[in-house]
Design brief:
Number of strands: 10
Shape: elongated
Low-confidence stretches: 1-7
CATH superfamily of the largest domain: Amino acid/polyamine transporter I
CATH architecture of the largest domain: Up-down Bundle
CATH class of the largest domain: Mainly Alpha
Number of domains: 2
Structural class: alpha/beta
CATH topology of the largest domain: Amino acid/polyamine transporter I
Number of helices: 29
Helix content: 55-70%
Distance between the termini: 74 Å
Strand content: 5-15%
Radius of gyration: 36 Å
């Protein structure tokens, strides 16, 4: 078979995928443990175990085959697939258990090799055989992976010859069944036997693990994997009947090497066991360091520069040394039967995530998902659900621990803020979920007042305007609100004097705005940015707000970073009419250039005295003011003061109203109430606060109040309610 070389990619489908997958599946479990499984579970019990395990593997194989025809797979196999879809954090949280699973797989195969070796040479010290085996493997992989993989062709032929010898022996073709159809499970349960068997079908990962060495992974992985799975499934089912018709249950359970004694030519089977287990261990030992190398190249593991390093020939030798060290330590304390169930848990997690990745891709319906090999959605969904379910059937505590480990690893990697090298579709997943949630929300009859959160539209011309007002805006929006920055280039019309710019300044400010918005967004606030060219400031603001009203998450607050007295009465009328139509509130900020936000501590909210004329639960016109004040109090760790100017005879009623407001609105217990019988302008001049929040009902009142505050020292927030806010909700 001619193989095209492309750099370090030099293996085709047969050598690079089919043979490694075939030899890893037809290995230690078939030769040394399948007889015991048949003896314990019975013929059809064993067939059920095989078919259930294979169904998970085939669904995963189909999922792998599908997704590998849609993306360019890099080194790391399953890690590369998962990380390119759900991100490095998810890929890494699965990749680390998968690396450990592959490493422990080598241990499993070496234990199997040692059992066969000691059957031939019973007087050889077991520990010497174990360590000698790993040393020889290390030398082979350390020299070059090419020699290790090329030797598998010979091993493949030996395994085929051993299988012929097995099926020619046992006398099964003229025996009646010596094992019951369904076993009595005298020593173990069905699920424990499943856990013992499942590592047999994890050879799927061996072909994928060498994805970085293949000439054309998109074509070779699907063909090689599915061909190997089909062939090995037929062999395993045939072997279950071979055992069931060749020896009684007691012998199958008691003798792990009974397959040698029943074969037509025992030496050939022994050689087959040695060759298959050695080859499987070698193949996995080649794949595991490459996975570790891929993890380290993406800064997911520990000592990443060390493990990411490769030799001049492209071999991950540091990662190989570390992997061999783990294997040697495990060999000294473990056994085949103890390692197999641990492997099962790790591989089931990996299989579940691979199937989840494909199902997510299919569900999102993104244009970029165009696999050449298409499968029904039921296939990956089945693989995901059954993989998770089997984990809990085997051992619920171990299943919970495995998922907890996965979750902890994910949180750890999220905190590390891994560098993004390629695009992921995980944002598409969240988009689909939000789209689904949005469709559900619009069908519900619940009041929006209970789910109100600040969603601020901020129109600015200058980046310095955004920077100057951001501390206040952040105190309003953080932590769960939304900020939409609207960059504006006003061609002709009037703008607030603090927003007036020369042509050159406009160009500089426009260039600086996107990076500033991105920087501010990194501080924990969901921030978006758009830019428009307009002829009139107020018209541009109003048109933009009206256009955004059609969005599901449309702005519910328009923040004008200028004082009301900067605008004419007609402009203020247009603003207030627009926010009313757009179901949004209005905030206008009159900032004292000298004081600014002061110590960012004292917040005064002025409650209009007209509220005393209405029932307490009637519609109020200061809810936005109080909601904004609450946000600022929490973010500033500040103090809230409610103020009211009232006639002297109404002071007691005002106190009662404000005390009730503090209680029913769940305002901080430290909230101070100040009632004054002085005129409002006089009291406003005397009041000490870092910021005053004034609620107004309409444009006329807004203009009048702004005229009063214009000559008073201090910073003022003017708010106009949309009536969709509710401080009592």
């Amino acid at each position: 078979m001619t193989e095209k070389k492309t750099g370090s990619r030099s293996f085709g489908m047969f050598r690079g995928v089919f043979i490694p997958t075939f030899l890893t599946i037809i290995g230690v479990i078939m030769y040394l443990r399948l007889g015991r499984i048949v003896g314990e579970a019975g013929i059809f019990g064993a067939v059920a175990i095989i078919l259930l395990a294979v169904s998970v593997t085939i669904s995963t194989g189909l999922s792998l085959s599908s997704i590998t025809t849609n993306i360019r797979i890099g080194a790391g196999g399953a890690f590369s697939i998962i990380s390119k879809t759900l991100g490095l954090e998810v890929g890494g949280s699965v990749g680390i258990p998968l690396y450990l699973a592959q490493t422990f797989s080598v241990v499993l195969y070496i234990f199997g090799f040692t059992e066969a070796w000691l059957f031939i040479f019973p007087y050889h010290p077991r520990i010497i055989v174990l360590l000698s085996t790993i040393l020889v493997m290390f030398i082979l992989t350390f020299i070059s992976v090419k020699y290790a993989i090329r030797a598998q062709v010979i091993v493949f032929l030996i395994v085929l010859a051993s299988l012929i010898s097995i099926f020619l022996g046992g006398g099964w073709w003229h025996h009646i069944a010596t094992v019951p159809a369904i076993g009595e499970f005298p020593k173990v349960t069905f699920w424990l036997l499943f856990a013992l068997f499942f590592p047999a079908v994890t050879g799927l990962m061996s072909g994928v693990g060498l994805s970085g060495e293949l000439t054309d992974p998109k074509k070779q992985i699907p063909r090689g994997v599915m061909l190997a799975l089909g062939a090995t499934t037929i062999i395993y089912l045939a072997m279950a009947f071979w055992f069931g018709y060749s020896a009684p249950s007691s012998e199958l359970i008691a003798d792990n090497l009974i397959i040698v004694k029943l074969a037509a030519f025992a030496p050939l089977v022994l050689v087959g066991i040695l060759a298959a287990t050695f080859s499987s261990a070698l193949t996995t030992l080649v794949a595991a360091p490459r996975l570790l190398n891929a993890l380290s190249e993406n800064y997911i593991f520990i000592f990443n520069p060390f493990f990411a390093k490769k030799s001049k020939s492209g071999e991950p030798r540091n990662a190989t040394l570390f992997t061999v060290g783990i294997i040697a330590a495990t060999l000294a304390v473990g056994s085949l039967d103890a390692v197999a169930p641990v492997l099962t848990m790790f591989f089931l997690i990996s299989y579940a995530m691979i199937n989840l990745v494909v199902f997510v891709e299919q569900y999102l319906g993104l244009v970029s998902y165009r696999p050449l090999f298409k499968i029904p959605k039921a296939v990956p969904l089945y693989g995901f659900i059954v993989s998770i379910a089997i984990m809990f059937f085997i051992n619920a505590i171990a299943g919970i621990f495995a998922l907890f480990f996965l979750f902890v690893m994910y949180l750890f990697l999220v905190k590390r803020k891994l560098p993004v090298k390629e695009g992921f579709v995980r944002s598409g997943l969240f988009f689909a979920l939000s789209e689904w949630a949005a469709k559900k929300v619009v069908t519900l009859a619940e009041s929006p007042k209970h789910i109100w959160k600040p969603n601020v539209l901020l129109p600015v011309q200058a980046s310095r305007s955004l920077q100057g007002n951001y501390p206040l805006i952040k105190s309003i929006v953080f932590p769960h609100g939304i900020l939409s920055v609207l960059g504006m280039d006003v061609r002709k019309g009037q703008v607030p004097k603090e927003e007036a710019l020369t042509k050159k300044q406009k160009e500089e400010e426009r260039a600086a705005l996107p990076s500033l918005v991105k920087k501010l967004g990194q501080e924990g606030i969901f921030t978006s940015y758009a830019y428009i060219e307009i002829s009139n400031y107020i018209d541009g603001v109003c048109i933009s707000l009206q256009a955004m009203e059609g969005q599901f998450f449309h702005p519910n607050i328009l923040f004008i970073p200028s004082a009301p007295h900067s605008f004419s009465a007609s402009e203020l009328n247009k603003l207030t009419e627009t926010i009313k139509d757009a179901n949004a509130g209005l905030i206008m900020f009159d900032k004292d250039e000298d004081i600014g936000l002061g110590a960012e501590e004292d917040i005064s909210v002025w409650i209009p005295p007209s509220v005393l004329e209405k029932d307490f639960y009637e519609e109020r016109r200061f809810d936005l003011a109080l909601l904004i004040a609450l946000r600022m109090v929490n973010n500033w760790d500040g103090k809230l003061t409610l103020r009211m100017c009232i006639e002297k005879q109404d002071k007691e009623a005002a106190h009662e109203y404000l005390r009730r407001l503090v209680y029913d609105a769940r305002l901080p217990a430290t909230t101070q109430i100040i009632i004054s019988a002085h005129e409002f302008p006089t009291e406003l001049r005397k009041a000490m606060a870092d910021i005053h929040i004034l609620s107004v009902p309409d444009a006329a009142k807004l203009k009048k109040l702004s005229t009063i505050t214009k000559n008073i020292r201090g910073s003022f927030l003017f708010t106009v309610d949309s009536t969709l806010e509710d401080i009592l909700a």
